[in-house]
Amino acid sequence: MFYRILSFFAFIILFSCGDGNGEYISAKAKLGNLAGADVEIFKVLDDGSLVLHHTEKTTDGYLLEDIGNFLIKIDNISDNDLFLIKVSGGLDWDSNDDGIKDKKPTKNKGTIRVFALGKDIKSLDGKLTVSLATELAYEMLAYDFTYSFEKESFLRKLNTVSQDILSRDINGDGIINKEDLLLFDPVVHKEYLRQVILSKLDILVERIYENSKFPPIFELKPVPIGFVPSGFAFKIRENNRVLFIGSPYGMHIYDVSNPLETFLYSSFATFDWIWNLDVKDNLLFIANLSEGFKIVDVSTPFTPNLLSIFYPGELIDDVPNAQSIEVADNDLVITANGIHGFSIYSVKNPQNPVELLTHKPCGTVLDAALKENIAYVLCKKSLKVIDISSLEEKFSYQTVKELSDLEVKEDKLAFSEFEGKVYIFDIKNRIKPELLTILSWDEDYIFSIRIKNNTLYIPLFYEGLYIVDLQNIQKLEKAILNIKMNENPYCVEEGSGLVFVGTKDGVYIFDLTVFNNF
Known about the structure:
- The chain is an alpha+beta fold and 518 residues long.
- The protein contains ten helices and 38 strands.
- The two termini are 41 Å apart.
């Protein structure tokens, strides 16, 4: 009884006084009840920009009802002012939302947010709750908030998404709208959630706890924010919001600085497939199958300028088989030449690439990457690791079926089988890759894969885009996200915070960072 009285009076003192200046009302942060979480309260201006109103900390306490409360300063808040409240971190003392304090708290590394009008903040003193439901509303509207904010339209959309989240009215007015979201209490109203959300509730909350790079909304309805109408996009690369799209019949260069309104800089035709690409600074490197390898100056994307065409010298009388080209350090590129092995070139002078070596470790080389003095070579049914100083094979890994693509970034290596399988290796020891896991899908196809920022992107022809967090590979069920696609994907690229997925009709653009901007 003593603890209950003490906690009650501490709460009264805190919520009566605030910082001693101004008038405050109380609100709650509940995944379950979050203790010691950081609270940032922003005013949303008419252009969608944010101004920090003030910061707070959620309360801790002996009793569950005393945990997760915080103050909102309401001085100078007008009824029609829109606010964004952000709650980050803290300890969850009711992780299963049964209304009973847990013996041990669950650490929360993530963020939950809520949009609320000034009039609702003031009228819901002690009842306004930042929760999973309000976070889902934020994520459903994150694209609109970031790219096309208009206050009145945004508030109407907030009412609409409330009906996508809740199946029942909470405040008793017979209408499901944004006011009901503000009253959502996971202990009392869990069953009010739509079934699609309720069925995935545990993983949605887990995504928040772990501050996953895959936000909860991507378990529900990931949508692209833009589309590049380029036609068949077989291979794509991005550099500073410029998108390079290779196809069976040429190259397209697009401005994607505004993903909602992409713009074609230029195009040029080729006679054969552009099978692979790479880009560094203002140079575009192309593997053009029977046309060989090409270097193009794209410093002015409106007028790309072909600098050179090259292929291994002693094989020049044969038909080229330019499978892939990748930029390495020290002005080097490594090329996969199909039946002609692999080559390393100096491109210090891009108008005159200098062949340094060519080696044929297997019948057909499909792809290759160079790290320091080690070449990782993808053959039709094997991966080979070769010391280029001696051309000695240091490691080999055999497969049964034909391979399609290779990616090597930092300390991770991945390669794909065409028939729906991906092998992931750790290469901290450069010459002894360690197999971490094999991902496989029945009756599907993989043309290419991509590693960027410790994330592996796998476009499956039928299943859509799979995204794998390579930093969480030991917990695969939490490390993998699947984005279903309306079109069959051939390739993928990540750059400038955007994910680009190439299909036969063009490139779909997703923004994964927009959910963590605020």
